[in-house]
Design a protein that fits this description.
By secondary structure, the protein is of the alpha+beta class. It is built from nine helices and four strands. The termini are far apart.
């Protein structure tokens, strides 16, 4: 399998370049789950180092450039202390990595990460609002272009599915393991139609043809669902004022 060969080659290149400075190489995201699809899923890699000074970065250049030329996202590089210190501002991302990751080299440095859930809640609210605004902004540029509207939904659905999963976590729920399951569960709790999200998943995965979709109606329902989640989460997760 090409993905596995690429990952093996990357680890070898990183080990040769960094030596003992390389603590861990971790695969995360959909590639570390059963929802990986070779056609559209990224190979996301986190590298944890002892140090990341200028000389250290220079040594990592060749391996990182090779990986990027393969069409993969550039690896994320953290020192061990930075990783732990970042849990407050990357609450969503690090909680996802803790939940689904595979160790390619070294030790499992994410298993012991502490993610403050009060900051996670705020992160979820902020990201839902920001991505709702972006969805509207992008649609405004080409409101009559069905192809671009469909591309907008396809490109944004992974982000919203991930945020819907974290919305369930923020509500104290235990999310289903799949993106579809998380969307359905949140739709049931908050009262929005999850069917447009299924439609976009099916198109993205090649199970439904684009010409068989009413793009305008699908986007209207898609946007309505996103707005519903954003507004409901803002209302349900509001923090009561402290007693004076």
């Amino acid at each position: 399998m090409k993905a596995e060969r690429d990952l093996t080659d990357l680890v070898t290149r990183l080990k040769n370049a960094a030596g003992g400075n390389l603590l861990s190489v971790i695969l995360y995201g959909s590639a570390a789950t059963e929802e990986f699809h070779a056609g559209h899923s990224d190979l996301n890699v986190l590298c944890v180092m002892r140090s990341l000074g200028r000389n250290d970065l220079g040594k990592l250049h060749a391996a990182s450039a090779w990986w990027a030329k393969k069409g993969h996202p550039t690896p994320l590089f953290f020192t061990h202390s930075e990783l732990h210190d970042s849990a407050d501002i990357f609450a969503i991302e690090l909680l996802d990595i803790k939940a689904a990751h595979r160790i390619l080299h070294g030790e499992d440095v994410v298993a012991s990460l502490y993610v403050p859930m009060d900051l996670h809640r705020l992160h979820v609210e902020r990201e839902l609002r920001n991505n709702t605004l972006r969805l509207r902004q992008h649609y405004l540029m080409h409101p009559a272009d069905s192809r671009k509207t469909l591309e907008l939904m396809i490109s944004s659905i992974s982000t919203f599915a991930a945020l819907f999963r974290h919305a369930l976590i923020a509500l104290g729920d235990n999310p289903p393991p799949t993106k579809r399951g998380a969307v359905d569960r949140l739709g049931s709790i908050l009262g929005f139609d999850s069917s447009p999200f299924h439609t976009i998943f099916e198109i993205r995965e090649g199970h439904k043809r684009e010409r068989d979709v009413d793009v305008r109606a699908t986007f209207e329902a898609y946007l309505d669902g996103v707005v519903k989640v954003t507004e409901e989460m803002d209302r349900r997760l509001v923090t009561p004022p402290a007693n004076k």
